[in-house]
Amino acid sequence: MNIILLGPPGAGKGTQSQRLVERRGMRQLSTGDMLRAAVKAGTPTGLKAKAVMERGELVSDEIVSGIIGEELDSMGPESGAIFDGYPRTEAQAQALEKLLSDRGRTLDHVIELDVNEDALVERITGRFTCASCGKGYHDKFEQPRLPGTCDKCGGTEFKRRPDDNAETVRTRMAEYRAKTAPILPFYEAKGIVSRVDGMADMDSVTEAIEAIIG
Ligand code: ADP
Ligand code: AMP
């Protein structure tokens, strides 16, 4: 099973990916997470990507498709992939076709998280993650059960993304509208797109996704 979760920043792609990883043992392929790891490690890719990400613009298609290819090569054929934040342009959608077919994989579903953009600034500016395991939280919508302690790993340090500020979010939304939303018709023509109400509570969104992927 290979699926794409598609939606603007803050739509809930990472949240739902983490749940699918836990429930189904699928692998989350988040280009955002991979790029942030490269920035932190100071690799050549990270050095190229850092300023672009801070502005909320898109990193080059070659870089992100390259890291997705490497990630797919590190996976056994039995593990399913959840593409989270990739593809984001038409060129990436084309690249993914080849990356999958070269490895004997097919795309089963593209799940679009349908959200009201006005709510996304609040979602993004309240977002934080566990510094040890990466579990996602929100100041208002998902606090750790025990304040200051990660539900999943017991970690006590949390972090916020430098690009999760109201100004950068606007650029990221504009990039989504201009470059990412236009790839939907490509997948619609294949008959594999399903839409989920991303404004519902997190558990309802998970149920709707589970119903689609079966
Ligand atoms: P994306 O990966 O699409 O950018 P996230 O999954 O990181 O989005 O979600 C952004 C923020 O919104 C997170 O802090 C998350 O806890 C919160 N969130 C995710 N889904 C929902 C939801 N259905 N209702 C309310 N808040 C949500
Ligand atoms: P995300 O974690 O998905 O919100 O991504 C954070 C940032 O990483 C984006 O604003 C882009 O700068 C960059 N990025 C992540 N995925 C991609 C992609 N598929 N194509 C281009 N840039 C990306």
Provide a descriptive summary of the structure in words.
- By secondary structure, this protein is an alpha/beta fold.
- The chain is built from nine helices and eight strands.
- A five-stranded parallel sheet has the order 2-3-1-4-8, with helices on both faces.
- Helix 4 packs parallel to helix 5.
- It starts with a strand and ends with a helix.
- The mean pLDDT is 97.
- The structure holds adenosine-5'-diphosphate and adenosine monophosphate.
- The site of adenosine-5'-diphosphate (ADP) has 19 residues, from helix 1, strand 6 and helix 9.
- Assembly state of the chains shown: single chain
**Ligand names:** adenosine-5'-diphosphate, adenosine monophosphate
Structural class: alpha/beta
Following the backbone from N to C, one meets helices and strands in this order, namely: EHEHHHEHEHEEEHHEH
Q: What summary fits the major beta sheet?
A: 5 strands, parallel
Kindly report the average pLDDT value: 97
What is the number of helices? 9
* Total E-strand runs: 8
Percentage of residues assigned to helices = 40-55%
List unreliable stretches of 5+ residues.
Answer: none
Q: Please compute the radius of gyration using only Cα atoms.
A: 16 Å
Q: Beta-strand level of the residues, as a percent range? A: 15-25%
Strand order across the largest sheet: 2-3-1-4-8
Cα shape: globular
> How far is the first residue's CA from the last residue's CA?
10 Å
